[in-house]
Structures are given as C-alpha cells and as structure tokens.
Amino acid sequence: MTELLTVIVVALVAAGALAFVTTKAELSLRWLEDSLILVATAIILFVMAFVVAEVVMRYAFNSPIPGHLEGAELLLPMIVFFGVSYTQARDGHVGMTFVVEALPPKVRRITDIVTLSVSGLTCAVLAYFGAKHAYLAWDYDDVTMTPPYWYVWPSAAVIPIGYLMLAVRMVLQILQKVMPDRFPPPIVDLSDLHVSE
Residue 52: how many CB atoms within 10 A of its CB? Predict the structure, then answer.
C-alpha cells in the first residue's frame, strides 16, 4: 500500500512539474509519439513479412522457422504500446460519450478533467508495476518456453513505457483544459478522427 501511495504522490508531483514546461513537454511528447508510431509501423511490416516467411518455409520447404509464434507474440506489445499515447493525443480511442456529449460545456470540461485524472493515475500505477515486472524478467533472464528462447524483457519493458507516455499525455490534456493559452494548437483538431464539439 505504501508503494502505491508513493507512486500516486510522485505522479502528482510530476504532473505539477509538467505545468511549468507545458509547451516544451507537449512538443517533445508529440515528437516521441510520432517517432514511436513509425517504429510500430515498421514492426507491423516486419511481423507480416516474418509470418509470410514462416508459412512459406513451413508449407513449401517443410522447414518451419523455430520460435516464430513466440517471436511474433513478443512483438505485439510493441505495436500496441508504442501507439497508445499517439492514439490518445488524437482522440482515437473508442469511448462511450453519449451521456458526456449531452452535458453543458462547463460540466463536460470538469467531467473530462476528472476522467483524465483517474485514467492518468491508473496509467502511472500500471507503468510503475509494469516496470517492476520488466526488471524482474531482465534480472531472471526470463525467456520463452521453446527454442530459440527469446528474451521476454524487451517486450515487457515496452508496456510500462507505453503506460508512462499515456499518463504524461493525459496530464498534458488536463493542463490543456485548465490553461489552454499555454499550449500549441491541439493535435485533435488536425485529425479526421475528431468530432467537433
């Protein structure tokens, strides 16, 4: 319980620190999100080629690639968690907003701030405990159960990185709602995904 409270306090202090460097933090996070979405895209293309190569090797040459299933599975968290903050920044996550959209704008703003606060704290906690798990996987040299015995820790390390970026993104979205004049134009307005308010 002490560990959880410590994570929450550190997350709140970090959120307060972000309030002083809003524009720089926003632009830096946008650059990082754009870079990681390119990496995720490259991984998707690699996984597609890897699976095609495995199918060809298995059925054409009767020689399957060892560890193909585990290798592809270990790349999936990278695809998801490298893009989760990018998607949040563009309002691309699926949400049930029927009730919220019916609220008056001031109440909707408060509802968004509360929802983002709870979600951001949850992501910060998940990032911390995910990092602990990734460290243990690295410390134990955890590998897959079949040859060629892929290391698990790189895939496990991506999960807390994604949750941390998502937490920072949500904090920046809260700050943007509280003090919009200190931010560059929102990304969501540049996207086709956004429904105008």
Answer: 10
